[in-house]
């Protein structure tokens, strides 16, 4: 190893220049979620591997191919979370939230990890903002989270996005449909790619996720899942769709949408933009997961949005960034005096940047110019002797002498705009 380290494939650094975009996206989601009564939850990034095997499905691509897994020092099987839902479900059950809350609404955001083939918009460490609602069977709960996503994306400034929606039915409808298409697909199994041949046997719904054009073509003749819904599931879907209509949410129904995680029942949806058909968010209902993971029989619904993908669509705002006052402290006495002023600035929330290195005035001014600050506070032995400080405006070069007793008042004044 030669010591020249680079980031791992599929990972990225987000530098301060770009971070404003990420914070804007997170802030928009948080604000909207809190209006709807959602509360933040933070779960560990590391979990027992089998939480995801059970939760997401042993035959899903995420579990079979994409999980970062390892053994810890005691030989326990650990995974880096590939998504947030399974962890939130675990936390909900483990902390018995259902005892105190009939309806529990959570939001979360943070890094997720999938050992996928990196490409535009697909990373191995990526960030999601997600919500999960527990305890609500009514389709308006599904509508509510779609509405949250819709309002948040508009607030962020994403344009021309559409919700693709579908219903997978309850466990009974879904199983009936799976049996039916398994038969259909087995009849022409030779026409499918090698991966799909395995999927047809093990988990036929996963064939709908295949990107292979031949496989897609062969799916055109399979029956629609919407024709397999029982009356309750049909009503659920119709009511959900009416909710979307009532709130003018831009959507289209696609009965081939199955989603890549096995826990879904009834409503599923994805959001993509007209510019790019890559999904910026996805979610749905998972009425059996809480029980399957050892909890009571409690329905749930949620979504997760890909922050990396959303950030690609937005630009930095033109508004003038607030810049600090740059302190130039020439000599030891000035540095000590500067610390006193700094203490006051912190109290008054005046943004300040100090370079404590010993440099000449001209070097300091050059650095201040590079940073692009508007004001420098200059203090040397002369100024200390006179009981003044100099404030230099870096835009037009004029400078004023300020009595040291007045300096905080003056700093407040000039940094207000
Ligand atoms: P998902 O569809 O796997 O769903 O991921 C949600 C979103 O995360 C995707 O729409 C995409 O924007 C983003 N995403 C996924 N993989 C990557 C990647 N490799 N690089 C960049 N972005 C990515 C879930 O994770 C479910 N837990 C959603 C959910 C919550 N369902 C119910 N509750």
Question: Overview of this structure, please?
Answer:
The chain is α+β, with helices and mostly antiparallel strands. The chain has 2 domains: 16-170 and 230-313, Bira Bifunctional Protein, Domain 2 (BirA Bifunctional Protein, domain 2); 325-415, Rossmann fold (3-Layer(aba) Sandwich). The chain is built from 16 helices and 16 strands. The strands form 3 sheets. It has an 8-stranded mixed sheet. A 5-stranded mixed sheet has the order 13-12-14-15-16, sandwiched between helices. It has a 3-stranded antiparallel sheet with strand order 2-4-3. Helix 13 links the parallel strand 12 (325-329) and strand 13 (352-354). The protein is elongated and about 95 Å long. The mean pLDDT is 95. Bound molecules: histidyl-adenosine monophosphate. Residues 83-85, 114, 116, 121-123, 126, 128, 130, 132, 260-261, 279-284, 302-304, 306, 308-309 line the site of histidyl-adenosine monophosphate.
């Amino acid at each position: 190893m030669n010591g020249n380290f680079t980031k791992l494939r599929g990972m990225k650094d987000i530098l301060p220049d770009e971070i404003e975009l990420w914070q804007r996206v997170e802030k928009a989601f948080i604000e909207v979620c809190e209006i709807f009564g959602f509360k933040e939850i933070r779960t560990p990034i590391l979990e027992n591997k089998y939480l995801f095997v059970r939760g997401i499905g042993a035959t899903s691509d995420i579990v079979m191919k994409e999980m970062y897994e390892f053994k810890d020092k005691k030989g326990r099987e650990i995974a880096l979370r590939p998504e947030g839902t399974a962890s939130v479900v675990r936390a909900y059950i483990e902390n018995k939230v259902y005892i105190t809350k009939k309806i529990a609404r959570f939001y979360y955001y943070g890094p997720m990890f999938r050992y996928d083939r990196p490409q535009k918009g697909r990373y191995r460490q990526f960030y999601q903002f997600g919500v999960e609602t527990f305890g609500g069977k009514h389709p308006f709960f599904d509508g509510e989270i779609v509405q949250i996503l819709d309002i948040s994306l508009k607030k962020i400034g994403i344009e021309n996005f559409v919700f693709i929606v579908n219903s997978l039915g309850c466990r009974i409808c879904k199983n009936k449909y799976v049996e039916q298409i398994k038969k259909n697909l087995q009849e022409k199994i030779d026409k499918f790619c090698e991966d799909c041949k395995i999927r047809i046997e093990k988990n036929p719904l996963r064939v709908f996720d295949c990107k292979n054009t031949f496989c897609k073509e062969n799916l055109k003749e399979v029956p629609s899942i919407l024709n397999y819904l029982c009356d309750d599931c049909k009503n659920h879907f119709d009511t959900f769709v009416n909710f979307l209509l009532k709130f003018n949410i831009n959507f289209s129904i696609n009965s081939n949408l199955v989603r890549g995680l096995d826990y879904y029942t009834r409503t599923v949806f994805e959001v993509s933009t007209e510019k790019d058909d890559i999904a910026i968010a996805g979610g749905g209902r998972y009425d059996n997961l809480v029980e399957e993971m050892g909890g009571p029989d409690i329905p749930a619904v949620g979504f997760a949005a890909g922050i990396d993908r959303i950030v690609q669509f937005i630009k930095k705002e033109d508004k003038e960034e607030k810049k600090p006052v740059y302190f130039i402290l020439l000599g030891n006495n000035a540095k000590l005096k500067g610390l006193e002023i700094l203490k006051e600035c912190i109290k008054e929330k005046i943004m300040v940047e100090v370079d404590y290195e010993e440099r000449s005035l001209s070097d300091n001014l050059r650095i201040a110019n590079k940073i692009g600050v508007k004001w420098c506070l200059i203090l040397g032995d002369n100024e200390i002797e006179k009981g003044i400080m100099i404030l230099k405006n870096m835009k037009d070069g004029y400078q004023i002498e300020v009595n040291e007793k007045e300096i905080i008042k003056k700093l407040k004044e000039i940094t207000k705009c």
